[in-house]
Amino acid sequence: MKAPTLEARQGMQFRSIRWERLAQQPATSRIGFAAVTTVLVLFGVMRLGHATPFGPGLNGDSFYYYTGAENLAAGRGFGRIAGSGLFVPTTHFPPGYSGAMALLQLMGIDKLDSGNFVNLLSLAGLILVLAFALRRETGSNIPGYAACAILVVSPVMLESYAWAMSEPLYLLLSFAGLYWLVLYLGNRRPELLVASAALIGLAWITRYVGVALVGTALAVLVVQRVPWRRRLISIGIFAAISCLPMLLWLGRNSALTGNPANRRLLWHPIGYPQLKALALHGLEWFVPADLVRGKWQALAMIVVISVLIGVFLVRLARRGQLSARFRRTSLPVVLVLHGVLYLAALAVSISLFDPATQIGGRILLPIYVSVMSLGALLGWEIWRHQGWIGRLAILSVGLFALTWNGIEQAQLANSIGEYGLGNAAPSVAESETLAEVQKLPDVPIVSNGMAMLYFWADRNAYAIPWRIDVETGEPRISYQDEVRNLKDVLCRDGGALVLFGLESLLSEQAALSDLTAGFTRSGKYSDGEIYRCEGP
Q: Which of 127, 312, 328, 465 has its CA 20 to 30 A from that of 11?
């Protein structure tokens, strides 16, 4: 094979420079960066707003977040008002998300709108943080554009942000904290370390799994290339600031209930169903779900994706590009380390504390954002160093991902926007049972629809007792006493037993016969029943 002539080599060099300049051009334009990121933020916020015209989806967890926010704003503390009218402190859910909603409520935002504002602001903030972080890491705007474009058209992101849950705020706080940590490692300014520690501390009291953030930061601070005295000082400062909010929170819970987080230590190890769910959800980040319906289809797709990524990683490693990018204190290292520790923290949580945790898109969202960011960084390195074949591959993958995600997200947004999610759905307002409850005088209510009554009727209710402990699977010793006490309250004060959708009663909850014994059914409706006490 003939060696290329001088003219041919010069032509190839010119084309390479031309592509490089084309790729690097946006990095020199602050106006372009501001314009594109603004468009991405507006698109993401408008799409989320379009998908949630009735507000974010409301479920049982949302009930505790909203009641906690309302009572924080009212100065009563973090908790809810029980059916008796007494304040009951909340200890199971950390207060970060409710605290953010409470701040907005104090600024005049409506109680139910506050959750939507937190989610919208969190999405906008996350896009800006990632765009700045990837721009700083690569010296170009393009990786940030790519990662943020995928995220704003992602159905995974939309589905998670469409619920009134703590994940959106957690994502903003955690990735902002990690970004400030990388900034500190780059120039050693102490205010950046303090800011990172504060953000990660707030993320930790937004979700308990934020302990992975603290572990990531401490691990990176240990291996930084500075004298040991400076390492220990930075570790001490970070640990003190980031851990203080959680220590105060656990101390408050212990003083109120004797249990730091309303959880018991049990052994129920993570098993095959959780690992299978993890693999399938991770695979669906890269290809449409229809392509991985069967076990062998999923396995084949995993092999194909792994081989393709492995080929490019090996090629980049041989050229020395990976070692240059994966410095011990670089953004890619921090993201990979956080992903590993996050999965480890999730496994420990499921195995020791919360076996009912479902592995799904919402739970895996921090991993998803990290993977998309790392994918943008990998794509950038391939674009720069793998010639026209690499660039063609990146363009093809990018266009496919944007098109497929955009179509699925549009369909999801239309569906959510039409029907709503959970208790935010307008169909809930048409409930016949709910309409009858609104006619009741101010009497005690026991119900399996505490959230529905709170959001739509502004009524506080007692929850129906649980017959089985969902953590241990064993009968609860106090079950009969709880049923008896609630019945005494209803009979003494003329209260009502309100049951929405009898088919929705869980097998672990109180049996229908136990709940209704000694009560008369005062009304039967299309979506529920109401019972009243027969006599004192």
A: 312
Q: Using CA atoms, how far apart are residues 444 and 253, in angstroms rounded to an integer? A: 27
Strands (E), 424-493: 445-447, 462-463
Q: Give CA 98 to chain center in angstroms.
A: 14
Q: Are strands 496-500 and 528-533 parallel, antiparallel or unpaired?
A: antiparallel
- pTM here is 0.90
End-to-end Cα distance, the chain: 101
Q: Which amino acid is at 451?
A: A
**Residue that has been written with the tokens 């069967």 in this structure:** 294
Token pair in block for residue 42: 């507006």
Residue for token pair 């990786």: 143
User: What is the per-residue pLDDT across 450-465, written as a single tens digit (0 to 9) for each?
Assistant: 999 999 999 999 999 9
Find out whether 73 and 102 touch, Cβ atoms under 8 Å: yes
Residues 6 or more apart in contact with residue 521 via CB below 8 angstroms: 529, 530, 531
pLDDT, tens only, 411-431: 999 999 999 999 999 888 889
346-373: b or e for each residue (b if 16 or more CB lie within 10 Å)? beebbbbbbbeeebebbbbbbbbbbbbb
**Rounded to an integer, what distance in angstroms lies between the CA atom of residue 495 and that of residue 492?**
8
